[in-house]
Write a structure and sequence with these properties.
The protein is mostly helical. It has a single domain, classed as Four Helix Bundle (Hemerythrin (Met), subunit A) (Up-down Bundle), CATH 1.20.120. Helices cover about 80% and strands about 0% of the residues. Helix 1 packs parallel to helix 5 (about 85-110) and helix 3 (about 55-65) packs antiparallel against helix 5. The longest helix is centred in the first third of the chain and has 28 residues, at about 5-35. The protein is elongated and about 55 Å long. The two termini are about 20 Å apart.
Length: about 140
């Protein structure tokens, strides 16, 4: 089965790997520079306190890409399976991916929280519209 809506799904998966690479490209040098000892008994909060904020932002964003986008994947796969993965639905999927990429850049570089929140909210509304369209099509 080929559906145009699967392209934005794969794009977001690949973007998640870009953020994964960026995370480690900044985290490993920071660990070395700050001589951080990896201690399994140290809490996550203690570990994060040893890293500069700009380094933590990439990890935070990677974690965010493992959260709400899981709903996106489910909705996209549903729309693809039921034959509704074209037109407006595919456009909404690309819009969601674009917003998540912008969100990533904002969080990973300047981390202006209100801007990041606004982008997140718009992306969430796009995802909600997609979910409602899928619900109408399924039900």
């Amino acid at each position: 089965m080929h559906s145009p809506i699967l392209a934005p799904l794969i794009a977001l998966v690949l973007w998640s790997f870009v953020m994964w690479a960026w995370l480690y490209a900044t985290r490993i040098p920071a660990l070395v520079k700050n001589k951080v000892v990896l201690d399994p008994h140290r809490s996550k909060e203690e570990f994060h306190a040893l890293l500069p904020a700009r380094v933590r932002w990439k990890a935070d964003n990677y974690n965010h890409l493992m959260e709400q986008p899981t709903l996106f994947y489910a909705v996209v796969l549903t729309l693809a399976v039921i034959g509704e993965g074209t037109g407006l639905n595919a456009g909404l999927a690309w819009l969601y991916v674009g917003l998540r990429v912008v969100h990533s850049f904002v969080q990973a570089t300047v981390n202006v929280i209100m801007l990041r929140f606004a982008i997140f909210m718009v992306a969430s509304v796009v995802l909600l519209v997609m979910a409602l369209r899928a619900a109408v099509a399924v039900l």
